[in-house]
Amino acid sequence: MAAAVPSIESAAVGAAAEVLRFLSGPPKQLLIDGKWVNAKSGATFETINPANEEVLALVAEGDKADIDDAVAAARRAFETGRWQSMGPHQRARYLLKIADLIESHGEELAQLITLDNGKPIAESISEVGRTVDTFRYYAGWATKFYGETNPSAPALFNYTLREPVGVCGQIIPWNGPLSTISWKIAPALAFGNTVVLKPAEQTPLPAIRVGELICEAGLPDGVVNIVTGFGPTAGGALAAHPNVDKVAFTGSTEVGKLILQASAGNLKRVSLELGGKSPNVIFPDAPLEAAVAMSATGVFRNQGQVCCAATRMFVQERIYDEFADRIAAKANEIKLGAPLDRTTTMGPLVSSEQHERVLGYLKLARDEGAYAKAGGERGPQPKGYFVKPTIYTQVHNAMRIAREEIFGPVAVLIPFKDENDAVFQGNDTIYGLGAGVWTRDLSRAHKVARALRAGSVWINCYGLIDPISPFGGYKQSGFGRELGPQSIDLYTQIKSVYVKL
Ligand code: ADP
Fold first, then answer.
1. Catalytic one among 123, 127, 273, 405?
2. What is the pLDDT of residues 201-226, one digit of tens each?
3. Sheet of 410-416, strand order
4. pTM score
5. Is 251 in the pocket of ligand 1 (CB under 6 A)?
6. pLDDT by residue (tens digit) across 71-94?
């Protein structure tokens, strides 16, 4: 373990003064019961800038003992009613305050996302905006989760109450290290729950800074606790904890299955937002220029590390060659480089593990006989986890590169004959998170949108996510719907009350 962080200026080259200030100093701590504390074991881990492989900061490595403390604090905050009983208007005000603080520290948070995760700064700025929107959206819901009155017998009055679930364990990934905080914390808090958040070990910094802003907003102690650390230890302890009422997880399908098993001990409520291998279907009558541009964004945004990325592009035979030429040209226009540089349009992958994994798939693609029409190799940078944006042709849907989630800037182009063939091949996957349909034929667009088995379908666009609408998976992409009013179901439970008249 490094005793001190090397030069922050070199690790975070180009960052603003307030970001450098945040990164300097002693190791980052855990937020438990309103206080910043070291891990009980005293252990720390390094968080790395994936663009230059240098250490950005040391971070407390929480494990089961720290999760126990955080859960106890969240339990006290819940049982004393210091959050729930303050009432919906006051909770809404706190959520709005958090949104305002995130907005006013937007540039700083965007730089932290980019430094820790590697995505280009423009994408991080947009992530900050979506995070603010989501906090404000759920601030609105705090005052609008109604119960019902029910038509019971004449001498009875029956009504329902929506009540919080309790202590929520929330485990988030590294690809949206700020936005996923809002997807989890905002609805949980709006409906009166308390939270223990476990950020991904690759990107703990945005969560720690948000923790500071939450303290600044003045939330009561223990309502939000943040324990940084590794998946199997801190994450595993949270998922298995007998005093946690609900676990919300975003991450890989493989870990989602472990979470589900771990949650069985006390029958926690579980919601899982997992992997994908999303079909994006392009018909010959598609608005081709837009289809090429948005499909490229749909697969290359965030270096392709997006669970609903448009990784399997099904292109009708007649336009296959033209589409392949055009999207390969788009891929070649992408400027790979230092992500804090505002002219960069693709940064590095998040970590060396992820880099190795994606490079392994590029080798597999060659072994399986696919043709790299663009990319197909690591970036030319001497340092950092860069991979060139990659388009494969000569692919069929049975190849492993067409079936397994690569989680990198890699798309496969697969030809189809007609509508039925497109739907059949599109649905021939264990996943069901997103899907795209490109056509000017209105009835075909809606028919195919219905037939594709995915939680979100985009017609003549791709990958748009707005807090007003639910997001989640079919099949092994998970269950439960986040965002939209559907989060009410995740973070409340219903009580039925009978009154004898
Ligand atoms: P990825 O494969 O994209 O890194 P993971 O599913 O491994 O995604 O990680 C997503 C989140 O789940 C991270 O916060 C990680 O620490 C956590 N995690 C990983 N393994 C476990 C586990 N066994 N139990 C609980 N959480 C875990």
1. 273
2. 999 999 999 999 999 999 999 999 99
3. 371-374, 390-393, 410-416, 312-316, 279-282, 434-438, 456-459
4. 0.97
5. yes
6. 999 999 999 999 999 999 999 999
